[in-house]
Design goal:
Largest sheet: 8 strands, mixed
CATH superfamily of the largest domain: Zn peptidases
Structural class: alpha+beta
Number of helices: 6
Number of strands: 19
Radius of gyration: 19 Å
Strand content: 25-35%
CATH architecture of the largest domain: 3-Layer(aba) Sandwich
Shape: globular
Helix content: 25-40%
CATH class of the largest domain: Alpha Beta
């Protein structure tokens, strides 16, 4: 999954991957979902199980780069600019594997790629995948948000009543969560959302100490809804940490800014080396994330 090239605005390959996975695996799921997708939902997917009360949102897109003039690179979202990073993609002339180069010119930082020909303007490039796993950690590019997708698909295996919305454009702030929330509210009266995404290791959030429940970032979830989630989490044996941040955002922000009364809470495993080819997440935190989402979808 981490090898799929799906930068913001180009989520179709990830949509295809997820749909193929669903078609292959749904026969083993407890409840067969209704699958909602098509041009009217752009590259998003909605799964509806039974009589849903709560929806999980997981974004399909990743950060990356767009090739501009003379092989210059323009950021998609907020990738870390690290000289020597290997990028991959494809244009009209074929497959591309190239190196990100940072140059200083007239006190300006120029970011470009080192390739043996001009790359087609508008081509998207993403980090080359180097997947590593040991007893404690998974490390690779795009754990944000392939782990969020993975967790949602694991929840789908046993989900009886609920919805899962796979969204787009989250990394660039122009997310689709607003119209997905509108559909789920108007068609199924869903007013509760859980954001399946990956957060950061910080001074207050550590590797291996459980999934993070975010009490706030740049958005402010409704306290009454947070209290319901915290009661369920506290009554369980699932390890979790409480996150409080002043910045950052997710699909939850798009839901909060919509005109629909949808409560939301961001829940995710913490990662180090954020927005680099070497994102790193503790395996125990991944498992806690899956367990807590499964429990909340049952209890909320």
């Amino acid at each position: 999954m981490c090898q799929v090239r799906a930068a913001s605005g180009d989520e179709a390959p990830m949509k295809e991957f997820v749909l193929n996975y669903i078609e292959r695996e749904k026969k083993n799921w407890k409840v067969l979902p209704t699958i909602i997708e098509g041009d009217h939902f752009q590259d998003c997917i909605i799964l509806v199980f039974g009589k849903p009360r709560t929806a999980i949102y997981a974004h399909l897109d990743s950060i990356g780069f767009t090739v501009g003039y003379n092989n210059s690179l323009i950021k998609i979202g907020g990738p870390r600019i690290i000289d020597g990073t290997i990028l991959v993609g494809a244009d009209s002339k074929g497959e591309i594997e190239t190196t990100l180069i940072v140059e200083e010119r007239d006190d300006q930082k120029i970011v470009r790629c080192d390739f043996n020909r001009p790359i087609d303007r508008g081509t998207n490039l993403t980090f080359k995948c180097n997947f590593r796993k040991d007893r404690e950690f998974v490390q690779t590019c795009y754990l944000d948000n392939r782990l969020g997708i993975w967790s949602a698909l694991k929840v789908a295996e046993t989900l009886e009543n609920g919805a899962i919305a796979f969204s787009c454009w989250e990394e660039t702030g122009g997310g689709t969560a607003g119209y997905l929330g509108k559909y789920l509210y108007e068609k199924h009266n869903i007013t509760q959302a859980l954001i399946s995404d990956i957060t950061w290791v910080t001074e207050g959030i550590k590797h291996g100490e459980g999934v993070a429940i975010s009490l706030r970032d740049s958005g402010l979830p409704r306290k009454q809804y947070l209290n319901k989630i915290l009661k369920i989490a506290n009554d369980s044996s699932i390890p979790f940490q409480l996150e409080v941040e002043s910045a950052g955002g997710s699909d939850g922000n798009a839901l909060q800014k919509s005109s629909y009364p949808i409560d939301w809470c961001f829940i995710g495993a913490p990662e180090d080396n954020v927005h680099t080819p070497n994102e790193k997440v503790h395996i125990n935190d991944i498992e806690a994330m899956h367990q807590l989402f499964s429990l909340l979808m049952e209890k909320l």
